[in-house]
Amino acid sequence: MLGFAVRRLMQAIVVLLVVALLSFSLFRFVGDPVNMMVGIETSIQEREALRERLGLNDPIPVQFGRFVVKAAQFDFGTSYQFHQPVSELFAKRIPATLELSFMSALFALAVGVPMGIYAGLNRESRLSKLFLSVSLVGISLPTFFIGILLIFLFSVTLQWLPSYGRGEVVKIGSWWTTGLLTWSGLKALIMPSITLGLYQMTLIMRLIRAEMLEVIRTDYIKFARARGLPDRIVHFRHALKNTLVPVITITGLQLGALIAFATITETVFQWPGMGIMFLQAVQNVDIPIMSAYLLLTAFLFVVINFIVDILYFLIDPRLRVERA
Which family does it belong to (predicted)? Predict the structure, then answer.
C-alpha cells in the first residue's frame, strides 16, 4: 500500500512539473510582461530596471526554478488587470467554484446512481426508458443552452429562482465564504449545480446501468440466487458493490472536470468564481491569472486522482493480490 501511494505521488509530482513548465511558458512566449505592466510613456531605462527587478534577465532555468518555488508557496505574482496579488484574488473566488463543483457532483451522484440502478434492474420498464431518454437529452444539449433554458423557465417565467449571482453568503474563518447557510444562497445554487452536473449525472447513470446489466449476468450472481438469497441482498450487497468500482474512477475524473470546466456555467449565471475571472484574464491577456488557473486546476486534478487511486486500491481486491 505504501509503495503504491509513493509511486502515485511521484507520478503526480512529474505531472505538476510538466504543467508548471507549460504555465511558465506563458510568461516567456505570450507577450512581454514588462510591456503589459507599464505604459507607452515609460522610458527604456525604466523598462530595463523593471525587467532586472523581475528577474527576466536571468537564465531561463533559473527563472523556471524561481517560478516553481513561488508557485509551491502559492505566490503567482501580481495581476496585470487588477494590480493585486493573484493568490488574494483566487482566495476570494475559489470557495465559490469549489462549492458549485461539489454540489454539482453531489447532485450527479444522488440522482445518477439510483436512476442507473433502477434502469439496470428494470431495463424493460417505461420509467427506465424515460431515464434513458433524459440521459440522451443531458448528453446532447450543450451546457450553456441548458443554463439558458433553466433561467427562462425558473427565473423569467416562474420567477422562483435568481438568474445570476451567488446570493447572500456567510464568511467562515479568514477567507472562506459559503452560501449553503443562507436561503438566498441555496436558491442561487440550484440552477448552476443542475446545469453543471447534468452531463455528469447522465454519464454516471448510463455507466451504472451498463455495469449492472453486465454484473447480474455473471456466475457468482447466479450462484447467490441459487442459494436462495433475497433479491435485495443480491442486488445491493453483491452486484452494486462490484458495479461501483469503475464508478469511483469516473466520479473522481468528473469531479476534476467540474472544477476545471465550470467556466461556461459561471459565465451564464454570473457566478463569482475562478472560471469567469479566467475568461476575463484571457480577454485582457492577464498572464499571471491564466498561469495560476492552469496550475491550480492541474493541482486539483492530481489530488483528486491520487485519492481515487488509493480508494480504488482499497476497494478492488484484485489490485491488492497483484501487488502482493
Answer: Belongs to the binding-protein-dependent transport system permease family.
Instruction: State how far the Cα of 85 lies from the Cα of 114, in Å rounded to an integer.
Output: 45
Q: How far is CA 213 from CA 225, 233, 239, 251, in A?
A: 16, 16, 10, 19
The DSSP letter of residue 118 is H
Q: Is-contact 251 109, C-beta < 8 A?
A: yes
Question: Does the CA dihedral 103-109-112-115 come out positive or negative?
Answer: negative
288 Cβ neighbours under 8 A, 6+ residues apart: 76, 77, 78, 79, 80, 86
What does the pLDDT look like over 166-207, one tens digit per residue?
A: 888 888 877 788 888 889 889 889 999 998 888 888 888 888
Place of cell 486534478: 301
Task: Report how far residue 166's alpha carbon sits from residue 188's, in angstroms, rounded to the nearest whole number.
Answer: 5
Write b or e for each residue in 2-36: b if 16 or more Cβ atoms lie within 10 A of its Cβ, otherwise e. eeeeeebeeebeeebeebbeebbebbeeeeebbee
- 85 by DSSP, 3-state: which? strand
Distance CA 208, CA 251 (A): 11
Summarize pLDDT for 64-100 with one digit per residue, the tens: 888 888 888 888 887 877 878 888 888 888 888 888 8
Cα 112 to Cα 107: distance, rounded to the nearest angstrom: 8
| Residues constituting the chain | 324
pLDDT digits (tens, 9 = 90+) for 104-126: 888 988 888 888 888 888 877 88
CA distances from 258 to 95, 194, 278 (A): 14, 12, 15
At position 266, the amino acid (one-letter code) is E
All three cell numbers of 35: 510591456
pLDDT in the model for residue 67 = 81
Residue 139 corresponds to which amino acid? Answer: I
**For the chain, what are the domain ranges?**
86-323
Q: Domain 86-323 has what CATH class?
A: mainly alpha
